[in-house]
Amino acid sequence: MRYWNSIARTGGFALLHLTAVVAGQAQVLQLHDLVIGWAAPGVAAVWFCAQRRAPTRWVDATALFATTVLGAAVIGTRLPAAIALATASAVLAWVFLIMMGRLRPHLWGAGGVERLRTLQDLWGLLGAAIVAAAAGSVSAMAGVWVATGAHHWLLLTVTFTRSVSSIVVVLPLAVCLGHAVTCYRQQRGSLSGWASAIVAALARTPRRRLGEYVIVAVCTTTMYAVVSFPGRTLPLTYLLMAVAVWAGARLSTGYVAFSNLVQATVAMVLTMHGLGPFSTVQTLELRAMVGHGFVLVAAVVGLALALSRDEAAALSRSLRAEQAALAVERDRHARRARLMSAIVDSMADGLLVIDQRDRVLLHNPAARTLMGVQFEREARVDTASWGVADIDGTPITQEEVAHARALAGEQALERDVLVRNATVPEGRVLHVRATALHLNPAEVQAVLLFHDVTAERRQRDELATFAGVVAHDLLNPLTTIEGWSEACQDILAGLPDQPDVTQARSAVARVNNTAQRMRLLIQDLLAYTTARNSEITAEEVDLAALARDVAAARIDTATASNALVPRFDIGDLVPVLADRVLVRQLLDNLVSNAVKYTAPGTTPEVSVRTVREEGTVTVTLTDNGIGIPAGQHLAIFQRFHRAHATAGYSGTGLGLSICSRIVERHGGTIHVEDNPTGGSRFVFTLPATPTETLATPEQSRTPPAARSPNPQT
């Protein structure tokens, strides 16, 4: 079906081209037997553009050559000149097709389906027409030279101007029609009902605009009648240009293209018959050149004005659409801003946003209530007047506040602070979380969230105190229970084996084991209370010596119980500024867990490393144990939480909570990671000493009695 449709279109264009060539007899310019008709080059260009994707383009080329030769023969052109004209027409059509595909591939006939919309489209079409006309003119002149042995420069010039003007006048109208037909077919699926669609489009056109179309047509006809009146002496050609400018500035591009075609046809017919605005030019050749030039200029001016207007209208529509979109976006952002403002104002937690110059950029009512401060616009942070201090009452300097540390690059800082001022004389404990907000590389702000934990902390402290008192008071009766159970074991050990004696021995052993587990629990409760409440005595602690001492104790315990002796790899550790007793308890708890939570039959391996970074020391303790279950890396630091409660490992769930509290009381952080080779990696920070003084070998040497036969220390 596509093949026969292509053949049908070829037949239609062939008939149209033949008509243009024969009709050119009315516009004949005889140079060396070469007839030059005005409309034929434009029809040939449209023909090849319309058949660009046709499967029978060789048929189109053959038909173009044949119709040109036949038409020339009908009007009396000799065969050599007719062949030259046919060759030139084919060259022109092919070159124009190629140039349009390169310059404006989106236009109809050049590979796309669009119509002329911008001045760039017009200049591209004009450029392709000039190149194609030059190629066709050179081919025509070469044909004349081959046929007659002579060349004629006037032939080249006239042929060139005729071809350019013909293409620029005919093709824009064809592009507009082709675009309309293609769009209609894509929307409707066929061309049925196109007449009704045209009538409907005319009905939608305002009457005022239809009236303007009619007035322009009447004025154009009148102007041509005036300039063609025999015997006139006044130069009135500018009136025709004025009508072209009017049409281009006011009417649609399609109407301008149609008007150009009608005016060009009338102008060329009148010119070649000695009438019209250029009838005074005596030489026929020059008259043709001037007529073609006028047609070309009028067409380009009209189309340039129409396309400039269309482009400006498109830009105006695009601008209005963007403005409407911006208005919608502004309204959406305004609603979102009002929502965020309402959320922030309704928060029970306080919110402060502070910039790098210590200015409070944003605060909510809860911040004013909790802090007891009435923040002025862009007020500066003043910890002294706000009454911000550490939990023990020690004032916090500007450099130590949470937002300053967050702006300095520390991550997710959390701490409890005490606020006591004239508005809050009784004092209030606030839990503060500071996070850096990077708006851009040069601008960083700190976001502070804080809520009142006064009641919670009071209740927690009371509970911890109660637990410590109870644990201490339970030690005396527990000691009595352990003493009597041991005495019973000694008595039962001296009795002969009998069923009742065996049963009694088992019962007493269970009592003794339970008493030992209770002692461990009480010791952990006391350790937790100590870690929470004891006063910190900061001093320079030789972390390497302390770690080796803890390692030696674990090696001795394993040796005494015939267990697998753990291996330790303790590097050159950096000294820290901390409480020696609490740091020892911290290391002892972590090492104890590393040794205990090891798979059966696996020798525990523990390594300790440190890195100093400005005012802190980062300690990394790595083991080869069974690791931390997924999702529990944060929960294990909570009180009484046991990650392996059902795996048969003993414990109270307070060890890591004690570690977390010790680190926090020293102003550091602690977290756990998975060891890539298996096990866990605990990382915590402690304050560094003012000067990095490493322990001497004599200070860090492990006593001989504490050494393992093969420890890696």
UniProtKB/TrEMBL annotation:
The chain crosses the membrane at residues 34-50, 57-75, 81-101, 122-147, 153-178, 210-227, 256-276, 288-307. CDD domains: HATPase (cd00075), HisKA (cd00082). It is found in: Cell membrane; Membrane. InterPro entries: BphY/WalK/GraS-like, HATPase_C_sf, HATPase_dom, His_kinase_dom, HisK_dim/P_dom, HisK_dim/P_sf, PAS, PAS-like_dom_sf. Keywords: ATP-binding, Kinase, Membrane, Nucleotide-binding, Phosphoprotein, Transferase, Transmembrane, Transmembrane helix, Two-component regulatory system. Its EC number is 2.7.13.3. It is a multi-pass membrane protein. It comes from the Bacteria. It catalyses: ATP + protein L-histidine = ADP + protein N-phospho-L-histidine. Residues 691-713 are annotated as: Disordered. GO terms for cellular component: plasma membrane. Residues 336-372 form the PAS domain. This is Sensor-like histidine kinase SenX3. It comes from Krasilnikovia cinnamomea. The lineage of its organism: Bacteria, Bacillati, Actinomycetota, Actinomycetes, Micromonosporales.
